[in-house]
Amino acid sequence: MLFPRPQEISVAAAYDGTHRTRRHDRPWVVLSMISTADGATAIDGNSAKLGGPTDREVFLHLHRSADCVLVGAETVRKDTYSPLPKHQQLVVLSTTGDLGSNTQTLLAAGNTRVVEGEVETIVLDLPGSICVLEGGPSLNNQMLRANLIDEICLTIAPMFIGGTTPRIFEGEWFNHESWTLAHVCQDSGFVFLRYLRSELGN
Question: How many CA atoms lie within 13 A of 72 on its CB side?
Fold first, then answer.
């Protein structure tokens, strides 16, 4: 860890979730994303091509710590999601119900739910105390605009790739409140940033 106190630290300790408690009407929402140093969120449409071993560990730690995972259907299709363990719920925002090659497997699992509508309504029906938001950029933008993200865990990959791939947030521009930087870590050229909504502190 580089900030707030230089030290060697495990992923589990750096991303400890004891501060994540359910809000009065919805779960605590953690956005988990990776981008290149110049802002790209995928290579050939796949975000997994940006990551390394530590980023994968961070992703899985957050993913597994959630009571539910909220994600857009395009991300599910591109990253070929598999069913979650029975104690978790996968909530997919989709207008068509097309979840890609694993559609039938995901729906047959019994803990995959396809939803549509406004995110302000959707989050009120999310179960548990912690929700991990995993993209894509349009869904992220809707959640940010509605002030429904409590924490942002962002990995910066040591890559510059140019092109026109999506950013973390895509949609209508708007001004948003500042965020508090909770930690900065690094490993093998990757930088790991964690932000909390400014009123939440660290």
Answer: 17
User: Dihedral of CA 56/57/62/66: which sign?
Assistant: positive
Q: What are 71-100's pLDDT values in tens digits?
A: 999 999 988 899 999 999 999 999 999 999
Q: Give the Cα separation of 78 and 48 in Å (integer).
A: 10
Quick one: fold of 25-161+183-200?
A: Dihydrofolate Reductase, subunit A (3.40.430)
Please give the Cα distance from 140 to 154 (Å, whole number): 13
Burial code (b: 16+ CB inside 10 Å, e: under 16) for 135-166 equals: bbbbbbbbbbbeebbbbbbebbbeeeeeeebb
The CA distance from 129 to 30, in Å, is: 11
Report the C-alpha gap between 120 and 53 in whole angstroms. 35
Q: Delimit the domains of the chain by residue range.
A: 25-161+183-200
Nearest to 181 by CA among 197, 170, 167, 166: 197
Q: What is the pTM of this model?
A: 0.94
45 pLDDT tier (thresholds 50, 70, 90):
confident
Q: Give burial (CB, 10 Å; 0-12/13-18/19+) of 173.
A: exposed
pLDDT of residue 173: 79
Render pLDDT for 121-169 as a digit per residue (tens, 0 to 9).
999 999 999 999 999 999 999 999 999 999 999 999 999 998 888 899 9
Chain centre to alpha carbon of residue 20: 15
